[in-house]
Design a protein that fits this description.
alpha/beta; Aspartate Aminotransferase, domain 2; Aspartate Aminotransferase, domain 1; 11 helices; globular
Length: 343
């Protein structure tokens, strides 16, 4: 059927963007949170142990999702901007023996891109599955699902992929599928149940696809096009383009006397740049001034990073030198006009 070929194109496009050959690859009907919940609900059974790395808002949310469905949640914690060493991860895995470990690749609340090498290997040594959030990073910073031994990876359509929000690519390794399809209990969500969704996407080997729900058809067409664009451009080119524009922005910010929140260049998320709030300024006033006089929307922090940073997103179509230059001009003007506090 014609729509099946569209879905197959999307599957191939996600496999390329994720650098995976996993058969269990599809797009969720919903935003990134849908994929987040889908992963937790299908992999984890009530009472099982889950380890969540929290260094910003996304870990906080996964911990809450796992708690709500009855998992025993353990957390590894750093303040925003902090990252976890492989030794710290291994220590926690040995201690808590979780079935699932969650890590955010692109922590957009802090502007951090997390190192991924070796994490999957450590998880597998402890018979644990690795779940990674790449919503803010996919297409902007390198991530290689198969090579880095990631068991479940998801992203959103609306960041560096440039599609409208509402579809969320996700992929499960064979190891993840084995756990998911050998459960004693059914997943808590009917809508997000992978036994149904794998049939909907033609991933279960059955000749017939049975009605489950109506997917966001227009969103799927747009996602297919966005995946075709990234394949045409080439993943490496997309990564280097995002890095180049980010580096141009970082230099400009430092020339203005601003401090970047993530000190180590290699740990900075190219798609979302975070600036430490300049001393003596009211961050809300700066944002309001830039919005009013320059019609550019920056944001403050998110979750635990509120009051710590200003955030600038340059990704996908929006990621170019002209926009970075506009950002710098707006900031320069705001720093001059927004009165410093008397302190």
């Amino acid at each position: 059927e014609p729509h099946h070929s569209i879905m197959n194109d999307i599957k191939k496009g996600i496999q390329y963007a994720f650098q995976t050959s996993n058969n269990m690859t599809l797009a969720m009907s919903g935003s990134g949170h849908t994929a987040m919940e889908c992963a937790v609900f299908n992999i984890v059974e009530p009472g099982e142990s889950v380890l969540v790395a929290i260094n910003g808002i996304w870990g906080e949310r996964v911990a809450e999702i796992a708690e709500r469905m009855g998992a025993k949640v353990h957390t590894l914690f750093k303040t925003p901007g902090g990252h976890f060493t492989n030794a710290e991860i291994e220590q926690a895995l040995a201690k808590h023996k979780p079935v699932l470990f969650f890590l955010t690749h692109g922590e957009s609340s802090a502007g951090l891109v997390h190192p991924m090498d070796g994490v999957g290997d450590i998880c597998h040594k402890y018979n644990c599955l690795l779940l990674v959030d790449s919503v803010a990073s996919l297409g902007a910073a390198p991530i290689l699902m198969d090579q880095q031994n990631i068991d479940i990876l998801y992203t959103g359509s609306q960041k560096a992929l440039n599609a409208p929000p509402g579809t969320a690519p996700v992929s499960f390794s064979e190891r993840a599928c084995h756990k998911m399809f050998n459960r004693k209990t059914k997943p808590v969500s009917y809508l997000l149940d992978m036994t149904h969704l794998s049939n909907y996407w033609g991933n279960d080997g059955k000749p017939e696809r049975i009605y489950h729900h109506t997917g966001p058809v227009s969103g799927f067409f747009a996602l297919r096009e966005s995946l075709a664009i990234i394949a045409e451009m080439g993943l490496e080119n997309s990564w280097s383009h995002h890095t180049e524009i980010a580096e141009y922005l970082w230099k400009g910010l430092e020339d203005l006397g601003l401090k970047l929140f993530i000190k180590d260049k290699d740990l900075r998320l190219p798609s979302v740049t975070t600036i430490a709030i300049p001393e003596g300024y009211d961050w809300k006033e700066l944002l309001a001034y830039i919005m009013k006089h320059h019609r550019i929307e920056f944001t403050g922090g998110l979750g635990p990073s509120v009051g710590m940073v200003l955030r600038i997103g340059l990704m996908g179509y929006n990621c170019n030198k002209a926009n970075a230059a506009m950002v710098l001009a707006a900031l320069e003007d705001a720093l001059k006009q927004c009165r410093k506090s008397k302190a």
